Prior knowledge:
Helix 3 (37-58) packs antiparallel against helix 4 (61-81). The relative contact order is 0.07. The chain has helices spanning 2-10, 13-33, 37-58, 61-81, 83-91, 95-99, 110-124, 154-160, 200-211, 240-251, 257-288, 327-332, 421-424, and strands spanning 128-132, 146-151, 171-175, 178-184, 215-219, 226-230, 233-236, 291-303, 309-314, 318-326, 339-343, 350-355, 361-362, 368-373, 376-396, 403-411, 414-420, 430-436, 443-449, 458-459, 466-475. It folds into four domains: 10-104 and 258-288, no CATH class; 110-251, YojJ-like (1 (3-Layer(aba) Sandwich); 291-382, RNA Polymerase Alpha Subunit, Chain A, domain 2; 383-475, RNA Polymerase Alpha Subunit, Chain A, domain 2. It contains 13 helices and 21 strands. Helix content is 37%, strand content 31%. It is an alpha+beta fold.
Amino acid sequence: MDKLLNFLYTIQWQDIAxxxxxxxxxxxxYILFKGTNVFRILIGMTxxxxxxxxxxxxxxxxxxxxxxGVAAVAALIIIVVFRNEIRSVLQARNLKSILWGFSSKTVxxxxxxxxxxxxxxxxxxxxxxxxxxxxxxLEEEVQSGIAWKGAVSKxxxxxxxxxxxxxxxxxxxxxxNQIREVGAILPLSHRNDLPTHYGxxxxxxxxxxxxxxxxxxxxxxxxxxxxxxxxxNLREVKQKHRLEQHIREHMGIATKQQPFMRKEMFETVMAAxxxxxxxxxxxxxxxxxxxTLATFEIPIEYMNRDPGMEILDASVNSVGLDLSGSGALIxxxxxxxxxxxxxLSKAVAGNNSFTITRENISLPPGIVLKKVYPTVxxxxxxxTIKKQLPVQVDWVGKLPDxxxxxxxxxxxxxxxxxxxxxxxxxxxxxxxxxxxxxxxKAKGTISANLALQPASLKIAAGSKDKIAIKYRTEQRY
Length: 477
């Protein structure tokens, strides 16, 4: 249990985002290429990867190398051989469907083909007569049909009823996913109560509906209407889903669509779960497999320091970190990816001790902290004050034997220094940098910087950072 908790503690939000994003990309590949040859090849590539990892685990170096080479060559072969199929899949979809669209139906059914064909012929005002037999035999009712036995397709149906085709005035009989006969002659209805605009096709449809259990679909050439005849009734259908419903009820498959949808949903959910499991396995293998231990020296960053205080000194300026992770991740670590930060928001003037814990350290995803040394850092802070200090020139060396320094002055005489209170209380004079006497001439002006010791001292804003030294010498007699 403790190992599990320690493991969960090492997981960062970047790890979760990494697994989620990569799993989604893999899942989108499944959605886009499902049912294609590319998808089957990708499954084979996955099996190769598993085999290669098993070879690595067992220490089969040559086998692992060979399988890795085969996988690399296979990836190039996929791109070259299946480039047209990949392009057709991607070109057929917009950016939205590629990123998050779902295809609810991967196969267009015979019913959908019939519905689409019927309404397109109605839009173009192409007359048509389609018969979908029921359980009864139609041999005695239908005459002069030409055997066809062609697969149902939109192009096939449109060509059969295209004006000028010798069989376009007859009926097409469809059984299952095949067009069994074309140019069939149907018996005409002799009812006198039909509307005057009903033509021969309407009477033929109603005549067969009166004498059989078939479903007949009529497309009016003059008006572009779609009508369905069954059991002595002829009714107009204006919407595609209503025609599809009539056909499904006639075929007795109206209740079979739901299991199909459930199967599609189950396959999609399983694909998503397998993508997460697969990517999690890869992530775990890369980030937690065969740990490599490495030591890094990382400088300490101090944060949230009170502007009214300054750091006088610290026991250490950097800490050593023993980090663990896969060899690939350890080798890829850059110094700016690891941070050690101490929060000084609650620090007070004087000595402060801080214990470095995991919360103070920022690590790349997949890297585990093993050890920190030292674990305690002492930081000495002091209140920042300003103090006026007189300036004194720090002469060094000696004048030439024939010269005597008779006069010197400096500008400014005093400067304002900013620094720690305890430091400035012990400083009475601020010196310039060393000025060599042997470089002096008869007279002149030289410039010198202030020697700020310790380095934490700063010149206050508005004070000069350079001192002008005017001097005059005379000949020694």
